Amino acid sequence: MKYKSVVVTQRGGLEALQIVENDLRPPVEGEARIRTLATAVCQDDIAIRAGNRPFLKKPPFVPGYSFIGIIDAIGAGVRDVKVGDRVAALTQYGSHAEVVYWDASELVPVPASLDPAEAVTLILNYLVAYQILHRVVQVKQGDKALIIGASGGVGTAFLQLGRLAGLKMYGLASPSKHHILTEYGVVPIDYHTQDFVEVIRQAEPGGIDYVFNGMGEETFERSLAVLGRGGILVHYGAPQSLAHFVLLVAKLLWYNVLPNGKSIEGYGTHRLGVDLFKQDWTTLFKLLEEGKIKPILAGKYPLLEAVKAYGLLESGQVTGNLVLLAPELL
Predict the structure, then answer these.
(1) Which of 49, 126, 137, 244 could disulfide-pair with 157, CB 3.0 to 4.6 Å?
(2) CA gap 282, 300 in Å, rounded
(3) Which phi and psi angles does 139 have, rounded to 5°?
(4) pLDDT of the chain, 330 residues: tens digit per residue
(5) Domain definitions of the chain by residue range
(6) Using CA atoms, how far apart are residues 85 and 93, in angstroms rounded to an integer?
(7) Are 19 and 6 in contact (CB under 8 A)?
(8) What is residue 300's predicted lDDT score, i.e. its pLDDT?
(9) Which residues pair with 69 in a beta bridge?
(10) How far is Cα 199 from Cα 173, in angstroms, rounded to an integer?
């Protein structure tokens, strides 16, 4: 039997993607074989294909940072999951395929009541926002925050989770996306025509508590300028190259020794570990079940038409999330 996957054959643009047929094999010891229901498309999928990240796997490889699927076979020694279970995992690579093989111990159960297209956005984008809010800085009601990149997948997760936490929020986005921000009570700032430092200083003379930045280290100085004493800038975007990685580490060290009462925290998705992932995914699944969060889906595509989703994401016109789905979910 065969299954198909999306493969990055070389560094580059959309032309580097191909659909490849693979032999279906039994799972090895400790592994589960999962039929993919939904997998999200994120900016890192594009950056990894283009080579704009340090420490990357060499082509050919299957992209895809997360998935939800149904287990159809398990290897020897697997005890915590069984055939027929609906599960999810954070993968970094390998999810844009009809079948995923994954370490069974890293799978989390997904409630059958949830729409896989919505729930798969929780595995990366909402996890990032939730962990930054509640594990990195531990926000409290009434705190003030700026979200840089407020209309993307992680940005819209911040809008919803920040509102639940009782934050007062400002967000950077282009004018065509401001309606999404205002829907969640966020003060929109047009980064094309407005200076966010000036806007926030006028509105908050004493400064704000947090800046959440996933767009690059070039805004560090200006982000620190809007923080009050004791404020924290959290950077969660991966650097674009090894040189940018070294520069980012240097900036983190330098700014954190300045005697201004402000600090920078770096967040990496894999730093907090699978056990905390599972706890936080369970919380997020419950919030989705209860209707307290509602992922914004900008588009749904057949899994093997991933190139269309990548192209749309690269256009910069996306508000929210893009997902790839198995045929039965379309």
Answers:
(1) 126
(2) 24
(3) -65, 160
(4) 999 999 999 999 999 999 999 999 999 999 999 999 999 999 989 888 988 776 688 999 999 999 999 999 999 999 999 999 999 999 999 999 999 999 999 999 999 999 999 999 999 999 999 999 999 999 999 999 999 999 999 999 999 999 999 999 999 999 999 999 999 999 999 999 999 999 999 999 999 999 999 887 778 889 999 999 999 999 997 655 555 565 666 666 666 666 568 888 889 887 778 899 999 999 999 999 999 999 999 999 999 999 999 999 999 899 999 999 999 999
(5) 2-110+296-329, 124-266
(6) 22
(7) yes
(8) 98
(9) 36, 87
(10) 14
Q: Please check whether residue 142 is in contact with residue 61, taking contact to mean a CB–CB distance below 8 angstroms.
A: no
Burial of 73 (0-12, 13-18, 19+ CB in 10 A): middle
Burial of 205 (0-12, 13-18, 19+ CB in 10 A): exposed
Please give the radius of gyration of the chain, using alpha carbons only, rounded to the nearest integer. 20
Q: What residues pair up with 324 in beta bridges, in sequence order?
A: 39, 301
Q: How far apart are CA 231 and CA 299, in angstroms?
A: 36
CA pair distance 87, 127, nearest whole angstrom: 16
Helices and strands in the chain: count of H runs, count of E runs: 10, 15
Please report which helix (H) or strand (E) contains residue 306, including its range: helix 306-314
| Residue 118 near residue 330 (C-beta atoms within 8 A) | no
Helix (H) or strand (E) run with residue 103 in it = strand 99-103
User: What is the structure's pLDDT at 280?
Assistant: 97
CA-to-CA distance for 37 and 329, rounded, in angstroms?
7
Q: Which two structure tokens, joined as six digits, stand for 62? A: 């299957």
Topology given in CATH for the domain delimited by 124-266: Rossmann fold (3.40.50)
E strands within 107-148?
A: 108-109, 144-148
Determine the Cα–Cα distance for residues 132 and 316; give it in Å rounded to an integer. 24
Element (H, E) at 127: helix 127-131
CA distances to 114, 152, 188, 192 from 234, rounded to whole Å, are 31, 17, 20, 22
Residue 42's SS3 state is coil
